[in-house]
Amino acid sequence: MTQSRTRISKAVIPAAGLGTRFLPATKATPKEMLPVVDKPAIQYVVEEAVTAGLSDVLMVTGRNKRPLEDHFDRNYELEEALTRKGDETRLARVQESSDLATMHYVRQGDPRGLGHAVLCAAPHVGDQPFAVLLGDDLIDARDPLLARMVDIQERHGGSVIALMEVDPAQIHLYGCAAVKPTVEDDVVQVTGLIEKPDPADAPSNYAVIGRYVLDPAVFGVLRETEPGRGGEIQLTDALQALASSPDLGGPVHGVVFKGRRYDTGDRGDYLRAIVRLACEREDLGPEFREWLRSYVTEEM
């Protein structure tokens, strides 16, 4: 059984999706660049990785994703213009994204599923444990989920996935975990995984959400994983193999998350995320909340 104790420093962010649920806005703009208040959604995800101590970030991209690279690169013309104006506040905000982490990019090519996107990261990751962060899930910075997952992986080895309890009627929208308890209240051992099961077949109401800390053994399993649901190579299938055969690459644990999560892949949840985050901003919140109260009162 692999028991990796290497300090985790690398994060992988799959970002090759077409964003069809947000058309026509995503016809020429990557969905990851849609703003959540005044930052693109993808920047929140990179900031989360960096806060958890992961300073090396690989984005797995596809066609028409060049704006992602541009956003995390320097924009010397804009910085020079802001410097000439003496606008230090906006200059700092522009430079913030390019100074966050060491960024790398690889193209997925054929859209063959999340498992294939993760496999594209193998040459960069090598034989180290690493994190995977899905861009549609924003985790509130006040609820340090990823840091907790890294801690569990470094103590127990193997892989760690993030779980949330959902309404059993909604479990068909997620990967679902069969679990058994551990001595830690927020940690379970995963004994099996099913991708988007019928509610009657679901082993629990623990849904897999978009954060993973993975043992590099997952790459060998993914290479042998046949296309599953939707004709895609499913990461869930590879994790199921690891969970059912720990000798392949250590155990699979789950961290049960009860904090604040925003699903920016759904149009309604995307709008709710903007409202909630705007309300909590010191610079925007007081005036925005006052307007929101009056608007809701008028509409009722």
Describe the structure.
- By secondary structure, the protein is an alpha/beta fold.
- It has helices at residues 41-51, 66-71, 76-85, 88-98, 114-119, 122-125, 145-156, 217-224, 235-244, 267-280, 285-299; strands spanning 10-14, 35-36, 39-40, 56-61, 102-107, 130-133, 137-139, 159-165, 175-181, 187-195, 206-214, 252-256, 261-263.
- The strands form three sheets. The chain has a five-stranded mixed barrel. A two-stranded antiparallel ribbon has the order 2-3. It has a two-stranded antiparallel ribbon with strand order 7-13.
- A hairpin with a 5-residue loop joins strand 9 (175-181) and strand 10.
- Helix 3 runs antiparallel to helix 4 (88-98).
- It is globular, with a radius of gyration of 20 Å.
- One of its GO terms (molecular function) is UTP:glucose-1-phosphate uridylyltransferase activity.
- It catalyses: alpha-D-glucose 1-phosphate + UTP + H(+) = UDP-alpha-D-glucose + diphosphate.
- Residues 10-274 form the Nucleotidyl transferase domain.
How are the SSEs placed, and which strands pair?
Layout: E1 10-14, E2 35-36, E3 39-40, H1 41-51, E4 56-61, H2 66-71, H3 76-85, H4 88-98, E5 102-107, H5 114-119, H6 122-125, E6 130-133, E7 137-139, H7 145-156, E8 159-165, E9 175-181, E10 187-195, E11 206-214, H8 217-224, H9 235-244, E12 252-256, E13 261-263, H10 267-280, H11 285-299
Parallel strand pairs: 1-4, 1-6, 4-5, 8-12
Antiparallel strand pairs: 2-3, 6-11, 7-13, 8-11, 9-10, 9-11, 10-12
Helix pairs in contact: 3-4, 10-11
